[in-house]
Amino acid sequence: MQSIFLDTLQGKTTERPPVWFMRQAGRVLPNYNQLKERYTFRELMDDAKLAAEVTLMPISDLGVDAAILFSDILVIPNAMGMELEFTDHGPVFNKPLKGITNPADHLNPDPAKLEYIYKAIEEIIRQRPSDIPLIGFCGAPLTTLCYMVQGISSNPNFPEAVKFLFQHKKEAKRLIDAIADLSVVYAKKQIEHGIDAFQLFETHANLIPVELYQELFMPAVIKISKAVRETGTPFIFFPKGLGTGLRYVTPDIADFVSIDWQIPIQHARELVHPEVGLQGNLDPRTLYASQEEIAVELEKFKPFFRENPRWIFNLGHGFLPDIPYENAKFVVDWIKSTNWQE
């Protein structure tokens, strides 16, 4: 496949950085909002043809260089027997694990519950343009565990989940191992069905000290990474809020690391091992500004790219739902039409 995204992941020189966005298949797109008037999130995810339509929508509507599977990070706990409901206010587990003795004993992992996702991948592969790679993903262990223990996403600090980590470290380790084991199966199945790259989303890496993350969670990250990379599939790690812990992201952990907006990209480059490529890190809120102001911010990345060609343009996190579609499209057009060598 001729793809600027895959070329960059493989360390090949390109004239410009590739561009894609986290949450690009979502509410920033008018066509997605029209679909949402007729279908629930769960229906869009469960139906292979609808999931393929939403996955590929940013290719035609925004012009990005890669598609990312339309799914959710919480399909793993759902496949472990936890009942998941998607509400207008986000995902909810009706019976979270907080307050349960030996919560790992209450899980019942069933990989067959993920089969519908592989059908969606096959449909996407059938429909996609020949130069558009597909990114697969899953949630990283800390973020997944936070939802499983807390049950809801209304408090972004997940106090009950963090308390559980400190009070029940041994039991937390059992949960982490269970999450990692099913995530490995899930990632390998995505690869078997045709994805071209894989991203691990650790959205809440900022919740605990770096040392505790290293102790409890990094072994699981490495386990998932190893399973992906043994197949020759590039692995991107997104540890949002890891901060100075980025210095621990070495080539044995990831091919690329995605950088949030809370650290300048130049500082991230100094922290991360030089053999690991970077992705990110424009603040998503920049896209609320005028297009003239957005262009000024984009211009600042050009010297960085000239010095660091192993870089994928992305945001420091996903699109916010009320970002103007016109501004998202403007960013892609600017990146693709600008001369990055001057």
Outline the structure in words:
There is one protein chain. This protein is 43% helix and 11% strand. Helix 12 links the parallel strand 7 and strand 8 (277-280). The strands form 2 sheets. The chain has a 7-stranded parallel beta sheet with strand order 1-4-5-6-7-8-9. The two termini are 29 Å apart. It is globular and about 60 Å long. It has helices at residues 4-9, 30-36, 41-46, 48-61, 75-79, 115-127, 141-150, 159-167, 169-192, 210-216, 218-229, 265-271, 291-299, 302-307, 325-337; strands at 67-68, 84-87, 90-93, 134-139, 197-202, 235-239, 256-259, 277-280, 311-312. By secondary structure, it is of the alpha/beta class.
Topology:
Blueprint (H helix, E strand, L loop, with lengths): L3 H6 L20 H7 L4 H6 L1 H14 L5 E2 L6 H5 L4 E4 L2 E4 L21 H13 L6 E6 L1 H10 L8 H9 L1 H24 L4 E6 L7 H7 L1 H12 L5 E5 L16 E4 L5 H7 L5 E4 L10 H9 L2 H6 L3 E2 L12 H13 L5
Helix pairs in contact: 4-6, 7-8, 7-9, 9-11, 13-15
